Input
Amino acid sequence: MQFQVRARDMIETQLRRRGIRDERVLEAMLRVPRHEFVPAELVTAAYDDRPLPIGEAETISQPYIVAAMTEAARVSPGDKALEVGTGSGYQAAILAYLGATVYTIERNPRLTVGARERLTRLGYLNVQVFSGDGSEGLPANAPYDVILVTAAAPSVSPVLLGQLADEARLVVPVGDLYHQDLLLLFKHGGEMATRFLDPCQFVPLIGKGGWPERSAGFD
Ligand code: SAH
Output
């Protein structure tokens, strides 16, 4: 129950106060147990206003950023959604809670296995976790109604744009390795419109449509 209290507090102080209005998104953020997606030693910090390390030098995004990306994506039940950068599986669980059919891809095999196990254990059956470089999307299941890229991209891959259905939404952090703009791209009648959402800081997207391996800066 203690986690419910923390989750409610997170909704009020971090999300509503900063302008998240979509009640379905707020409900998903309340119901998906974020403490199940962080390492055991960090459970007490699970609902804190910050990203947290999840091992393998990667992070679970700050709650506000997850909510902002999800709200911007306007997810409806039955939408086909692609997430690039599964990490802990938390963002995928939020999309699944909203009724999307979720395809999520992670390049780090250890994180892939961990997320797959966690999502199955918690009962998120409408999520499929793939292993590999998702920087150019996942063509096998395209087109998507929603694509969320949860790692920092140097630019928007045209290959990814090609996997959007008409009326689809793409949310992606674009910038350098240290600062990015969270962008919403909306496809309508074959044209793309772009809106700036927030400044943000993500770990790098590594791969063909992202940064070269050495950019991660850990070697
Ligand atoms: N959405 C996650 C957090 C993502 S952190 C969550 O809810 O927990 C970013 C993740 O993107 C990292 O796990 C990293 O390994 C992964 N990543 C980086 N480049 C990638 C690529 N080209 N394809 C797939 N995953 C990638």
